[in-house]
Amino acid sequence: MTVEATNTTSNHKSGKTVLVTGANGYLAGHIVDGLLSKGYNVIGTVRSLAKSEPFEKVFKEKYPNSKIVYEVVSDITAVGGFDYIFKKYPEIKIVLHCAASTAMDGTGTEDLKDVFLTPTLEGTKQILTRLDHW
Q1: What whole-number distance in Å separates Cα of residue 55 and Cα of residue 68?
Q2: What is the top-level taxon of the source organism (predicted)?
Q3: What DSSP element (H or E) covers 88?
């Protein structure tokens, strides 16, 4: 993999809009940061707006001229759960799917397949299906 250092002020990706699902996650947060630093417009999905507030504050301070918007997709497994985003933002050209189930209750007694793997795979299938539609 080659990483190219560029001056972000001369590398603005005007008009390029990226949807990042699960935008408040650890990896997705770094992805959003990288995209904003390169001048991309970012639409991030979160399960609740409260989860986006710390990220939104940091990114708006760090990149005051950037476009970052958070939208709620409370259930990534819901059929058509991402549809309103593609309707609202037809300018989306790139999708980076980082959302995953986090339904663990912390007791350590959960069946990982039922609470993590199956919902995460179903969410991935849903967004892939919707991409084909849009």
Answers
A1: 10
A2: Eukaryota
A3: helix 83-88
Cα separation of 59 and 36, whole Å? 8
pLDDT in tens, 32-87: 999 999 999 999 999 888 988 999 999 999 999 999 999 999 888 889 889 999 99
Secondary-structure breakdown of the chain: helix, strand, coil percentages, each rounded to the nearest 5: 45, 15, 40
Query: Residue ranges of the domains in the chain?
Result: 11-133
Provide the CATH topology of domain 11-133: Rossmann fold (3.40.50)
68, two tokens: 């970052």
In 3D space, the residue among 44, 42, 11 whose CA is nearest the CA of residue 25 turns out to be 44
The Cα-based distances of 64 to 13, 68, 82, 84, 119 in angstroms read 16, 10, 27, 27, 36
User: Cα 57–84–60 angle (5° rounding)?
Assistant: 15
Mean residue pLDDT of the chain comes to 83
Q: Is 70 exposed, middle or buried (0-12, 13-18, 19+ CB in 10 A)?
A: buried
State the residue for tokens 């980076």.
Answer: 96
